[in-house]
Design a protein that fits this description.
heterodimer; A: about 210 residues; about 15% strand; globular; B: about 475 residues; alpha/beta; 5-stranded parallel β-sheet
Chain lengths: ~210, ~475
């Protein structure tokens, strides 16, 4: 997994609450057996005016000019500014894969759905929870200022605005450590292999039907 | 010291190791695998030269991509076919039991787990699918995970977790005639919202829950994720134990007795303390119909499409306006006047035998209305289909003009050929009415099986209690 340390990134504001993972990456693209290549179909039904299918070229598809990600001023954005309950619904990890593939490394919202939030950390994406009033302010500032960018520092746990305002955020210590160092979860877990074996040996006696 | 919640008892029984900050390595007893969220996990395992720790804890089934029509020619869509073949190949390579497409036991992963006794009380159950919460109906700790965690469970049989907060959803009283577990689920989501359960494990309790069958409890726990909760659960009681007894994978003999002794302790203690408690009066719950693009956008069959001007916040006003535009609905329209184009009875929420019996009891002696282009019934598994046919339910549906299909996820998410066309309106027994969920531009209204069957025959939503 790629590590996340600091990010200076252009911000795109997606002003909708309860954005679900079906919207982030529609079901037909879940037929892929690969982890990569989902970026062009991120928000497919909002982004294009026609129907997308896996295997179909996206270059000549008609773009929806009203969709915020298509506006020229937001091209190259790496920070997604979102509303509450972002990433609700399906557990599909294809959602963070698509966001990452499209260049997003940080998502700021007042709240996230649990499974999506967890999946982000497995894919080098930092989901940042900020107070709803602060997110509101960032939306206003972002829409008013072309080229609006934020600096994210995971180690210091801060988001810094173009005017130098420093906004602190909370992050679970274990998740921070793994994301900051880009560590392989499975490798870390296998360091506990003895404890897993001890647990299994005990449970085989207590609850033998679980090992039938 | 207060007593323990069911969640705490399940959690404590599965702790392998605790880090200084409380992050816990939790042991996973059952891993359900399907074709959509597993290929990248198996690939990751291979690339790292790892092997599954316990193939006996995993069980696989293709469900999302499978056709619900004749399967003798296999899957027509080559991309869907490759995904199912990839599951077959991975299971064969590692020795994981798979119920393949031509196996009578094949079906929706959340239907076959309980049906086969693979889901048992007291277990931790995971699957790369958010509706894994279904299995909590058995007094199990069950939740959906992403593909990285599927790989993690394959490799280690564990997951890193932090304890959730706990919420007791207490439903007391007796449900009215024609009101089902689906209506309870939608009423709860209407009450707490789709993010109301975020960060919580929900426990459903109270006399109305105790009175539910296991099928009803599964429907309820299935929808916990639509309230934002990764896990929903119901305490073990005699209903649970009676359901589990004699299933192919449930314990037998002395192991059964030992298991039941433990299972009978799997309930929250009387003095357990929850982080939040909400209460509903079962007698006041009416048949529910969603009107928008989120399960929380729900009202009763006697309600009307709300006016966004009356929304409780500016954000909601914006959401409601957008939802009405997408759904092609006008504020103030009575739900009972909305016509439907298609009807879908199925999904991991409502495709079990009891659901099909409910729908058939409404469809019996009636006909699908002429304005309904397609009404389909998709059983949750091959065994549900077999049971329904033994009871003659298929004949009732077919006589009424419904299509009787092969088991799978089908039009709940339209990964196979079953889908809505742009602008089509569907009465659906599934779990999500998101934009595009059942097909791009499709308009989904979530209802119970009885309400879906009634809508099919009336041609519009109708109160099944007076139908």
């Amino acid at each position: 997994m790629q590590a996340f340390t600091t990010l200076d990134g252009l911000v795109v504001p997606l002003d909708r609450a309860n954005v679900d993972t079906d919207a982030i990456i529609p079901k037909q693209f879940l037929k892929s057996i690969k982890r990569s290549g989902f970026g062009p179909n991120l928000f497919d039904e909002w982004r294009y005016l026609d129907h997308g299918e896996p295997g179909k070229s996206n270059h000549d598809r008609p773009l929806n000019p009203d969709f915020v990600l298509n506006r020229p001023r937001y091209q190259g954005a790496s920070v997604l500014l979102a509303r509450e309950n972002f990433g609700c619904g399906s557990s599909r990890e294809h959602a963070p894969w698509a966001l990452e593939d499209a260049g997003f490394r940080a998502i700021i919202a007042p709240s996230f759905a649990d499974i999506f939030f967890n999946n982000c950390f497995k894919n080098g994406i930092l989901p940042i929870v900020l107070d709803a009033a602060v997110v509101d302010r960032l939306f206003r500032e972002c829409e008013a200022n072309e080229g609006y960018a934020l600096s994210v520092d995971l180690d210091r746990q801060t988001v810094t605005t173009p005017t130098g305002d420093v906004i602190p955020f909370a992050v679970d210590a274990g998740r921070k450590h793994r994301l900051f160092n880009g560590l392989d979860d499975i490798g870390l877990t296998l360091l506990q292999a003895d404890k897993i074996a001890t647990y299994e040996a005990r449970r085989k006696i207590e609850a033998p039907w679980l090992f039938a | 010291m207060p007593g323990l919640t069911l969640f705490q008892k399940l959690w404590d029984a599965h702790v392998v190791h605790v880090e200084a900050d409380g992050t816990t390595l939790l042991y996973i007893d059952r891993h359900l695998v399907h074709e959509v969220t597993s290929p990248q996990a198996f690939e990751g395992l291979k690339l790292a030269h790892r092997t599954p720790r316990r193939v006996d804890a995993a069980i696989a089934v293709p469900d999302h991509n499978v056709p619900t029509t004749d399967r003798s020619q296999g899957i027509a869509d080559p991309i869907s076919r490759l995904q199912v073949e990839t599951l077959d190949a991975n299971c064969a390579e590692y020795g994981i039991t798979e119920f393949k497409m031509d196996d009578i036991r094949q079906g929706i992963v959340h239907v076959i787990g309980p049906e086969e006794g693979l889901t048992l009380p007291g277990m931790t159950v995971v699957c790369g699918d958010s509706h894994t919460s279904t299995h909590g109906a058995f007094g199990a700790l069950a939740f959906g995970i992403g593909t990285s965690e599927v790989e993690h469970v394959l490799a280690t049989q564990c997951l890193w977790q932090k304890p959730s907060k706990t919420m007791l959803v207490k439903v007391e009283g007796t449900l009215g005639r024609g009101v089902t577990a689906k209506d309870i689920a939608l009423a709860i989501i209407g009450e707490i919202g789709t993010a109301g359960g975020t960060g919580y494990a929900l426990e459903f309790g109270g006399s109305a829950i105790r009175a539910l069958s296991m099928e009803g409890r599964m429907t309820l726990c299935n929808m916990a994720i639509e309230a934002g909760a990764r896990a929903g659960m119901v305490a073990v009681d005699q209903t649970t134990i009676d359901y589990v007894k004699g299933r192919p994978y449930s314990p037998k003999g002395a192991a059964w007795d030992k298991a039941v002794a433990w299972w009978n302790t799997l309930h929250s203690d009387a003095d357990a303390v929850f982080d939040r408690v909400i209460e509903l009066d079962a007698g006041k719950i009416e048949p529910q119909v969603t009107w928008g693009t989120s399960p929380e956008m729900v009202t009763t069959i006697n309600g009307s499409v709300p006016d966004p001007a009356t929304a409780p916040s500016e954000t909601k006003q914006h959401d409601w306006t957008r939802a009405l535009e997408y759904m092609g609905l006008q504020a103030g329209t009575p739900l009972a006047e909305i016509p439907v184009d298609k009807v879908f009875i199925g999904s991991c929420t409502n495709s079990r035998i009891e659901d099909l019996r409910e729908a058939a009891s409404v469809a019996k002696g009636r006909k699908v209305a002429p304005n309904v282009k397609l009404a389909m019934v998709v059983p949750g598994s091959g065994l549900v289909k077999q049971q329904a046919e033994a009871e003659g339910l298929d004949k009732i549906f077919v006589a009424a003009g419904f299509e009787w299909r092969e088991p799978g996820c089908s039009m709940c998410l339209a990964m196979n050929a079953d889908r809505l066309e742009p602008g089509e309106r569907c009465a659906s027994t599934s779990n999500r009415n998101f934009e595009g969920r059942q097909g791009q531009g499709g308009r989904t209204h979530l209802v119970s099986p009885a309400m879906a069957a009634a809508a099919a025959c009336a041609g519009h939503f109708v109160d099944v209690r007076n139908f």
